[in-house]
Write a structure and sequence with these properties.
It is a single chain. The protein is mainly α and 260 residues long. It is built from ten helices and no strands. The radius of gyration is 19 Å and the shape is globular. The termini are far apart. The N terminus is likely disordered.
Length: 260
């Protein structure tokens, strides 16, 4: 049974300007800003009315805690149902932790596009909070890394024989490096250490790399495996939709700049 430890496998960004969006994120600060043309400060000013999405508990670090804490509790609860002395059960935890993380990556990835295409309370909320949404993704992926390290350290022979694939490692390692760097630079202390241009390059390239890594995992599941599950279809089409939103939003902004 193949049990890949690939980032996002089954068995397997704040911006340099003080008023810009901050992400975390794919994962932690990994949520990286998706579109540099959207000013989050403007979004905050626009949301002055007292709507559900303006409640304190649904914004900032409260939002992160509201998502990341239950996510972690769900992972720990699932652990109690597994026999973790068996590497196959650890593999299933890798899969579960990724499934808990993917929605937050997709939401962070499409936040600025939603604001451009569907301006409204929800899209403003998503854009305003994409840094913390990205950190929620990072929290879930931290669990995935924990289980991967557990498997490698405790079941090395199983890992080599059943889970290891060179192409998985080639994709997994850069993904975690992007995730770590984006997470750090989502905080002011570390953001100051790089230029605005470097920050933008890191977060933009990183979010695309993380999206591609996760989405192609589900594409691979659907086209190369027989044990397809409903969640594989959901995450495949949701990821494709997130990318499609970015393409349409980019074209909308591009054509809006063309002189009449």
């Amino acid at each position: 049974m193949r049990c890949s430890a690939r980032l996002g496998s089954r068995a397997r960004s704040t911006n340099p300007q003080a008023s810009s969006a901050r992400l975390a994120g794919c994962g932690s600060a990994v949520v990286l800003r998706c579109d540099e043309s959207v000013d989050v400060h403007t979004v905050r000013v626009a949301d002055t009315n007292h709507t559900l999405f303006n409640q304190k508990i649904l914004n900032g670090w409260n939002l992160w805690a509201l998502i990341a804490v239950p996510l972690s509790l769900a992972v720990m609860a699932m652990m109690t149902t597994k026999d973790l002395s068996r590497p196959t059960e650890i593999s299933s935890m890798i899969q579960f932790s990724v499934r808990c993380s993917v929605p937050w990556l997709y939401l962070a990835f499409s936040a600025s596009s939603l604001k451009i295409l569907f301006p409204g309370t929800f899209s403003r909320w998503a854009l305003r909070n994409r840094r913390n949404i990205g950190l929620c993704f990072a929290a879930g992926m931290a669990w995935q890394l924990f289980f991967i390290v557990w498997m490698v350290a405790g079941y090395w022979s199983y890992y080599l024989e059943e889970a290891y694939l060179l192409e998985d490692v080639v994709i997994q390692l850069p993904g975690y490096l992007f995730l770590f760097a984006m997470t750090l630079t989502s905080f002011r202390r570390w953001r100051r250490r790089i230029s605005p241009r470097q920050w933008k390059l890191l977060h933009k390239s990183g979010i695309y790399f993380l999206w591609a890594t996760v989405w192609t995992t589900y594409w691979y599941e659907l086209y190369y495996y027989d044990d397809r599950q409903l969640i594989d279809y959901i995450y495949y089409w949701a990821g494709l939709l997130a990318y499609g939103l970015r393409v349409v939003a980019w074209n909308k902004v591009r054509w809006a700049r063309v002189p009449a």
